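User: I'm putting together notes for a lab meeting next week and I want to include a structural view of one of the chains we've been expressing. I don't have a solved structure, so I'd like a prediction I can at least talk through. The sequence is below, exactly as it appears in our construct file.
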Amino acid sequence: MRRKEFLKTMVAAGASAAVLSTDGLKVLAREAAKSGVPDLVAVLGGEPDVMFRKAIDELGGMGRFVKKGQKVVVKPNIGWDRSPEMGADTSPVLVKEMVKQALDAGAAEVVVFDHTCDDWRKCYKNSGIEEAVNEAGGKMMPADQETYYREVSLGEGKKLTKAKIHSAILDCDVWFNVPILKTHRGTHMTLALKNYMGIVWDRQFFHGNDLQQCIADCATYVKRPALNVVDGYRVMKSNGPRGLSAADAVVMKGLFISPDIVAVDTAAVKFAQRVTEQELSAVTHIEKARQLKLGTTNLESLHVKRISV
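Assistant: Thanks for the context. Below is the predicted structure for the 309-residue chain, given as structure tokens.
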């Protein structure tokens, strides 16, 4: 799809931070439609913090999702010991803005974590996210030991029917799923659905039991993100998910936000097609998630808001 055609189909979104089930998501989506709040927001052309401010304003502000005294989690991708220029991890500028806004909205605390692939201390530091979170007043939490996780049921899963999920997610009032957009040798692309692998303990099960289905299954966990915020500022177009050099990433200045995890991943893949040859049909966990009724791939059925900065 050409850029012009794609941007015409983009849609903006909104749903409450208290979304805990598929039924709840549908109800809130209907309420959002009545109020004119978009289902998906696509922002192009600005810095990560500026784009987020534009998007969250369209959705009614952070106060619509975070209430005074709540425990909040911001879950970026911090999986790799890489600097921000590599495009392997979520932008620290974006994470800092989200932590700051959540605290300004009255959050009692904001926790940031990821179950990293490389050494977590190096990932947290060298990604720039640890410093950004500390400056914003948030708290970094480790995820490198099984004691941080508790088992939950995934009753709707086909391959993955239970998983040990990080206590930060289990104990929070609201959480935000904040992946970076990049290629991945195993799943072709990694986005919001794939970012769930950073909240679970036993990822080896995924790789040995139909990786794409397990990714979709994991997203059936009843406590859904209030928003899925896909960082498309710097997109890794090759050698993902870790990257070999800064040449693997290209600055595209995009941000996609929606409570619909299937829709936001669909939109982000189409956006990435400007610099990659990845087809949406190849990212099969997106279609599997649609079949599990976690969202829609039909962007034209949504109320989309497109913003140029």
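A couple of points you could mention at the meeting. The two ends are 22 Å apart (CA to CA). The first helix runs from residue 3 to 9.

User: Perfect, that's what I needed.
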